[in-house]
Amino acid sequence: MLKPKSTPTRELVNLDGVWRFAIDTRVDPEPWKGLLTTPLEAAVPASYNDLFTDAEIRDHVGWVYYQRPVRVPRGWGDERILLRFDAATHAARVYVNDALVGEHIGGYTPFDIDLTDVVSAGEEFRLTVAVSGDLSNETIPPGKIEVGIDGRRKQVYFHDFYNYAGLARSVWLYSVPLTRITDITVVTDFDGSTGTVDYKVATSWEREVRVRLADASGTVVAEASGTTGTLEIPDVTLWRPGAAYLYELTAEMVEAGVVLDSYPVSVGVRTVAVRGHEFLINGEPFYFTGFGKHEDLAIRGKGHDNAFLVHDFQLLEWTGANSFRTSHYPYAEEVLDFADRHGIVVIDETAAVGLNMGVVGGMSGTPPFPTFSEQYAGAATQAAHAQHIRELIARDKNHPSVVMWSIANEPASNEEGALEYFTPLVALARELDPTRPLTYSLVMFATFQNDLIIDLFDVVSMNRYYGWYVATGDLKSAELYLQGDIQGWVDRTGKPILMSEYGADTQPGVHSVWDQVWTEEYQVHYLEMNHRVFDRFPQFVGEQVWNFADFATTNGLHRVEGNKKGVFTRDRKPKAAAWALRKRWRGLDGRKPGSEGTAETDGQK
């Protein structure tokens, strides 16, 4: 799945801006036929929920409509013309003038619609996009819609972050040649000082294909021909965490010496593997430090913002973090591009969060009905999950920053039916990408004694909140619980163990000389307790704090202005915990705490 780029053979027009906007209850039954009758306008990219002061819009269940005029550039008469949505949360129907031209389900992966036969170069058309934020047991993430006593439809969802909806990422109109490159896949390796790039180029027609690889200075270091092959790089410079180096592979389709299409892909030469209880990058043990994050901003919701992108990565560097997980959905591709360029390691997660009726039943782990059932996560859910995995890997397979796929967050892996649900999904992910390890994040009541699916995966990723949800405020007991929990996974699996979530809600500015929950001091002491335990286990390969920054959630009684487990506030001000993490992480150099040797031999800078 090639991202639209401006190349010698391709052009693109960005359609971001302010669009007409309406909710379905305030327009005619077929609002795409003519101008939207609305006084409202909405920003793109942005979630629509927080843009307006109208509560009916913020809590709307159903379809909303975006509309704008689009003019096709005059020079595109002999090209194919495509419309690209980087995401539409969670489903979209696209209309050109009065006609439906395409649909997509899945709120965090991109899709293209070919408009060649319905628009003309130099002419203007009316673009209307219907977007639904509705969740059901046939969507990823799942949810359900209830009808209240007053007849209003209400969205219920089983994840603890706000269900922002709309066109939260960019929209593009772009051109490609009639005969074109349709996809590129690269897999890298190295032996000593020689790097290799295995490539595969898919095309719309059989034509000559030639490939060249240039280093960061633009010097061509390898060339080949054919749709598949291997490029060798003498004196290769590896992509390393904290020391990114990117080559550029350019594929060209050629006929009679004329270049029909050209497309570049950034390439970072690196390897990823699991060996025993070690996680290896370039054959060297790597220790994750970082966060679970969210795409979450005031007013913009999940709308991508390049200013926050830059600042967030600055804060990652400031704390000494070397990684993050895209909890709990794929982030905008610009985020991964930035991580590629700056050497930040990414665990790339699907939108499969909330596959757990035990969460609905509370931390007792007693669900109102089985998770893996036709009432909830059945065949339709599994099919949607599989499609999401296909689209995620198709989009992100070439990013060197992505070192592992997380195919679910906190599923009911302790329930009957989990093995049958996940076995084909794991097989699909391995078929699509055999080069990266797989994981999932374990919910607290999926233990080393009752979890049914860990044998399918490569890395144990634990979400644990001892001292917060369990043994609240009692860090001495929490330390014993955590010690025993990790030991159990060590004894059962022999696999690398990563803490993918641990954290405590903290109200900035609240202080105490005692370990009182919600204080800044307690958050620091909570993290220190976890770190003491982590450092006792050589099998431990990383720690990702929940969360990077405070974020919006449902209107639950246990949330005041959202989830406050961030070590930064929602507007990125540091709490005391941010300083404590900076002190710990900036001294690790990517190594396991307590390990011997230098950063060059034991890990990545």
From TrEMBL:
Its EC number is 3.2.1.31. SUPFAM superfamilies: (Trans)glycosidases, beta-Galactosidase/glucuronidase domain, Galactose-binding domain-like. One of its GO terms (biological process) is carbohydrate metabolic process. The keyword Hydrolase applies. Keywords: Glycosidase, Hydrolase. GO terms for molecular function: beta-glucuronidase activity; carbohydrate binding. NCBIfam families: PRK10150.1. This is Beta-glucuronidase. It comes from Herbiconiux ginsengi.
